[in-house]
From TrEMBL:
Organism of origin: Citrobacter telavivensis
SUPFAM superfamilies noted in UniProt: P-loop containing nucleoside triphosphate hydrolases (SSF52540)
MF annotations from Gene Ontology: GTP binding
UniProt-recorded name of the protein: GTP-binding protein
Annotated Gene Ontology cellular component terms: cytosol
Record-level GO BP terms: tRNA methylation; tRNA wobble uridine modification
Gene3D superfamilies with a match to the protein in the record: P-loop containing nucleotide triphosphate hydrolases (3.40.50.300)
Length: 291
């Protein structure tokens, strides 16, 4: 079965609806299959934003620099896999200077409303989080439900020389440091979502982070984002989350249509009846639409 076959399977149960309603719902459903998620990534210079993007998604995102900030403005990159795409917005790192952060405030406030999710990256060994906290309180608080904090470079957590190279895992002493850092970020920012800890360089913690990220995304964004993940990160649980999200997004289309007070009660009843059938089909053909 191809993507077009999957869409046709979704369309069939709509035949019992009036033409105008059917056309409206069908266009909304098609837009779901074409949706392009917009993901922002931010954090202080040197936090490893670009390396995290490269670890998550297929293909290069931005140049990676260990020393100097390499993104001074909001840079957009489109990742494409087949007929699906993802827009990455690489936001400039905060904390370089007070003057520059003031300039960035207007930039962030303009861009934040269009983002489905913001990955806020913090270095595992960064103890100076006052700038991050100030910027979060000043600019991000209204969008906290869209922010996922990611502590990166877990392999550099003290004592960094004890990282288990054979198993690619932190040592027991590093685990204590990492957990203390996680609690500190949780206490400082009081985030809406769980704090993730990863090592983008080694890949440690990335699978858990992806599962958390999928839970944070709007339903419309989870499936197209899943198509852009590196294959090893697009696990069965991640695909299930995306499939369930797509089913919920499809259901929302019908719920919105059925809530219109301008429609006769009989038509709204038909919409609600058709809804469950279409959601069931959408879940069944999800693989063919997105993969």
């Amino acid at each position: 079965m191809q993507k077009s076959d999957g869409l046709q399977a979704i369309e069939k149960p709509l035949a019992s609806l009036p033409h105008a309603i059917r056309s409206h719902i069908l266009e909304r459903l098609r837009s779901l299959t074409r949706y392009e998620p917009v993901i922002g990534i931010m954090g202080k210079t040197g936090a490893g934003k670009s390396s995290l993007c490269n670890a998550l998604f297929q293909g290069e995102v931005t140049p990676v620099s260990d020393v100097n900030a390499c993104t001074r403005d909001a840079l957009r990159f489109r990742l494409r896999n087949g007929s699906h795409s993802l827009m990455m917005v690489d936001l400039p790192g905060v904390g370089e200077s007070a003057q520059r952060d003031e300039e960035y405030t207007a930039l962030y406030r303009r861009i934040l409303p269009e983002l489905d999710l913001v990955l806020w990256v913090i270095k595992a060994d960064d103890r100076a989080l006052s700038v991050d906290e100030h910027f979060y309180r000043k600019v991000m608080l209204a969008y906290q439900h869209r922010v996922l904090f990611v502590i990166n470079q877990a392999d550099k957590a003290e004592p960094c020389h004890t990282w288990d190279l054979a198993d690619n895992t932190p040592s027991p002493d590093q685990q204590l440091t990492i957990e203390a850092k996680r609690r500190a970020v949780q206490h400082l920012f009081l985030p809406h979502h769980p704090v993730c800890v990863v090592s983008a360089r080694t890949g440690w913690g990335m699978d858990t982070m992806v599962e958390t990220m999928m839970c944070c995304l709007p339903d419309r964004a989870s499936s197209p984002l899943a198509t852009q993940l590196h294959g090893k990160l697009c696990t069965a649980p991640v695909k299930k989350q995306a499939r369930d999200g797509f089913g919920s997004a499809v259901g929302d289309v019908f719920d919105m249509a059925a809530s219109s007070s301008f429609l006769p009660a009989s038509v709204r009843a038909v919409i609600r009846t058709v809804r469950d059938a279409v959601v069931s089909v959408a879940r069944a053909v999800w693989d063919w639409i997105f993969f």
